[in-house]
Amino acid sequence: MNRESSLDRIRSAGEPFDVLIVGGGATGLGSAVDAAARGHKVCLVEQHDFAKGTSSRSTKLVHGGVRYLRQGNISLVLEALRERGRLAQNASHLVRELAFVIPSYKWWEGPFYGVGLKVYDHLAGKLGLEPSRMLSREETLRLLANVEPKNLTGGVIYHDGQFDDARLAINLAQTASDLGAAVVNYCRCVGLVKEAGLVAGILARDAETGEELTIRARSVINATGVFVDELRRLDDRRSQHLVAASQGIHIVLPREFLPGETALMVPKTADGRVLFAVPWHDRVVVGTTDTPVSEPSLEPRALGEERDFVMSHARRFLVKGPSDGDVLSVFAGLRPLVRAGGAASTAALSRDHTILVAPSGLITITGGKWTTYRKMAEDVVDQAETVAGLDATRCRTEDMRVHGWTRDRIPEANLRPYGSDAAAVAGLMGSSPSLAPKLHAALPYQRGEVVWHVRHEMARSVEDVLSRRTRALVLDARASIETAPLVAGLMAAELGRTKEWEAGQVAQYTALARRYVFTDPASRETHAMAKEGRKPRRTR
Ligand SMILES: Cc1cc2nc3c(=O)[nH]c(=O)nc-3n(C[C@H](O)[C@H](O)[C@H](O)COP(=O)(O)OP(=O)(O)OC[C@H]3O[C@@H](n4cnc5c(N)ncnc54)[C@H](O)[C@@H]3O)c2cc1C
After folding, report:
1. Which of 136, 291, 332, 401 could bridge across to 249 with cysteines, CB 3.0–4.6 Å?
2. What is the overall mean pLDDT for the chain?
3. Pocket of ligand 1 contains residue 368 by CB under 6 Å
């Protein structure tokens, strides 16, 4: 995957692209893979880095959504469970099965959740994981060594999937590129090209050089997540809001707060929310919240009430509770939720995601979740073929392996996310002794990985490496700040950049990463939502 060669292909494209996608999150990247796999000529532009938006800020679960069962939304759960199974098969290097325990503190909770989870097992059918079962108090305490024992009566264990969200996004960009798509990060769509009132392409700006590009296409897919309304308004100034953004935050703790290999799930906190504490990359991710947001931003920050909610519940369910100083990172993400009523005028292909085709032909897709990205892509590319006047073709991604797929067990933990590329990454590091040392004592990464990210994964900035190629920013925000100068130096050598570039990168990264340091005032949301006095709402 190479940025310059993708740009060259865009500049020299004589014919319009068949499918042009705006937005490089799960939805857009999945669509690029789907369309390219069908043999279409595909281009994707992302204004920042791949997965900079919501797609790197999830709870990292590949799940059917146990809580949708409570709402009786069986078709949604069925679809997600099917996709869970497919993703586990097609990206086995990034997805793993994980056991979740729901601790019970009231006599009826065990049987109540136990029955629901049997339905969940049954719906998964042949793509099911290990079946759920009830646990005694002793078994629960053995699996969740740090859970609050007072009044604990037992628990229920069930299985779901877990993954690395940003790494999957990078692998999807590589898959699309392997299939011939032109994919470019740091290239923003700033306008639409129209002919006789119909969308015929986009105007894009390369954020690195300022170059303006006119990219012509037979169909344009708006996959910009919580920003879909911006593009819809470029198309038609009178268009109504389709998306309401909802913020969710997570804190990241050292592993000692949840030792063992089992996640903790609280289906209903006292104020009606779902809470997860999940082991991930030798840390524990705890969240989340559900707070309405009026102005979406690429770098949302946690509200005071959200921080209090997550911390107080972590302290309530864990005997050894975390103090503020224990938090390694705090991050926030925005869910693109389709507004009630908005779907009335849409061709809703599933209850979870929404596809809307404007009179101009602009196709917007939003909603859904990471787990169902492949099905969303299938549905929207079907629409794109119609809009573009292409012959309808069959989706090919159900059994298609994602870049990096392997079943081999990779011994080095830090190289596992590279899957089938791990040997080449190791080979690169073996080629020079200067590339083998770790980036930082508190982080699992090695210097040579940075070189790999620049050469093969389109990393352009220190943030790309520390936030989405590695996950240093969420594993330990302070350590990631300390290693930023080293990363900037390695990248500058690869990209042929100056000392000024290095200094600028370190300053930019430090300012950004301070927002993830829980005890730093920069990590708190102080305007927008807070000023409006908005409160986190109950989870749907
Ligand atoms: C707190 C939280 C927890 C979640 N947990 C889970 C989970 O555990 N499992 C699960 O399955 N799902 C989960 N989800 C849902 C999942 O993360 C989202 O559904 C998914 O990431 C949305 O992807 P997207 O591509 O639609 O949006 P995004 O990832 O936001 O991508 C949109 C992209 O468009 C780009 N863009 C915007 N405007 C332009 C422009 N003009 N030009 C070019 N590019 C542009 C943005 O920069 C962005 O990168 C969670 C969501 C949240 C918020």
Report:
1. 332
2. 92
3. yes
